[in-house]
Queue: 2 jobs
Job 1
Amino acid sequence: MDNPVSPAGRLLRDWRQRRQRSQQQLALDAGVSARHLSFVETGRARPSRELILQLCLALGIPLRERNRLLLAGGFAPAYAERALDSAALDAAREALQRLLAAHEPYPALVVDRHWNLQLANRPARALLGMVDPSLLQGRINVLRVSLHPRGLAPAIINLAEMRAYFMRRVGQLASDSGDPVLAELRDELAGYAPLPGEGAAGQSTGNDFAVLLRLRSPVGELALLSTLTVFGAPADVTLSELALEALFPADAETAERLTRLASA
């Protein structure tokens, strides 16, 4: 009789296929035999806790999904998950707040895996003040706020270019993670109609090394570069899913205008 595929084996196979890796490639990277990996995926062998973690590491699977795989294999989760405002994460939260404050007068914010806002400095909150208050009720999603017709979209000068950039970004994240919430967000953003005069995404208006966000603001036009920072080697699910996005001025005029915006 055929062995039923175990939940852990099925999940591992799904992740391997999502990463576009063959059994032979993954077996070499994880230091196991391709035969044993095949047995695990088809249910003929039960993976050990150590093997699941080896394969997760080789596939670059997020910590949240590693816990899910361990549970499917009958093992306890390996990684804690605590709220950002919990006492256990006081040191991490304080570090993030120091980074946000140190980046002023330039905008910076912290988002979770679904691009929901967790923390923001004063200049970032000033930019959020440009959007319709209805988008700031409850959980604030940074990508939604950026592209929604009542959000920052009308103020983005190179909107077609930024829309294409954001859609590539969320599409890749949804594909890499298999997260249904990100897939739903991607579909929602794709449903927003182009604004009048938006045009089509064409030649970049920024530098040749990065896409610039060009934004109308109360203090004048801003040209902004974006960088992302993540925690190194996190052992907590929440921390592994946080990213700090810092915006930098792309020219002297923007630097001066951001200083005025922060002061206001």
Note: The chain is about 45% helix and 10% strand.
Job 2
Amino acid sequence: MQPRNPDDLEALRAASDILGIDALLSDDERAVRDRVRAFVDQSIRPGIADWFDRAVFPAELVPELGELGVLGMTLDGYGCPGRSAVEYGLAALELEAGDSGIRTFVSVHGSLAMGSIQGWGTEEQKQEWLPRMSRGEVIGCFGLTEPSAGSDPASMKSFARREGDDWILTGSKRWIGLASIAQIAVVWAQTDEGVRGFIVPTDAPGFEVSVLEPKGSMRASVQCELHFDDVRLPADALLPGARGLSGPFAALNEARYGIIWGAMGAARDSCEAALAHALRRIQFGRPLAGFQLTQQKLVDMVLELQKGSLLAVHMGRMKDAGTLTPAQISLGKLNNVREAIAIAREARTILGGDGVLLENSPIRHAANLESVRTYEGTDEVHTLILGQHLTGMSAFR
């Protein structure tokens, strides 16, 4: 048997698809995947190592992402693409194969900000914002997490009080993606009526943004801290359809669903880098791929990649059928991110010393996935969600 050609990526990818997951996809789904994959190859891969190294988010790609049809991808109407959950998942996978920061932009802007406006906003709010956001002309961020309220959003301190017909917003938010480049923020705050959501222009007087840096993870992305010093908002800034935490939690579940797929993109890219290197690298007179220990690493990585990818497809089908539950989303997020980190780390070992160079993706994916593991619910939070599902008892307090 002849060794595989390390330069034939499609053949390596086909060999890794041992379960034949590709055959589970429709022609339309594969077309979406291939279009996003081509975009990643042409517009993200050539620059991502430099962007990561310089901690730069490539904002020039935002209109291109809009043209690609991945902003608010599953939303219907208002100029949004209206694609299926599986198609969105495949797009998330391919984008994160490029970099977690790019997929995170699509998730924060499309699932969290646009999804909140679509789900809880007035017709006027939807007409005003969603068409421009779907084209990438207006960028939105999502303000829920606070310096002292991360995994426990019910403890948020931000408060909006009524003053006549207006609202006065005070408080702060932390780890808010995109805020320094966004034109609007969907902000959740306590009120006398419970937690409510607001559309807040980022240029409003009293709205301050500071970028959180330097970072060792998600460097080709933007995370910020927000401060609200008596920010005055008109009555029509309120998202009237959301009361309590059910609104932001619904948006978070949309973002978590995308992570189930996206993590497998980072894992797949890491596997491919490791396999190609092992086939090229000659040690002790033969390719590294010919040694038993290397083959065990490759097999273990592909086992988890295949299982995680199959899980993502299954959950996508359930989401399209309207049967996917929050506990199932927690299971997918917990498993796939955890396994993706293990895959990226193991892939780095196969690349040896060269594995720490940014020209090779596994070290970047491993660093990024540490952030993905934390945001949209830590391992601990998703473990307790699943524990509550199994036992019927909440262990959060």
Note: Residues 246-280 form the longest helix (35 residues).
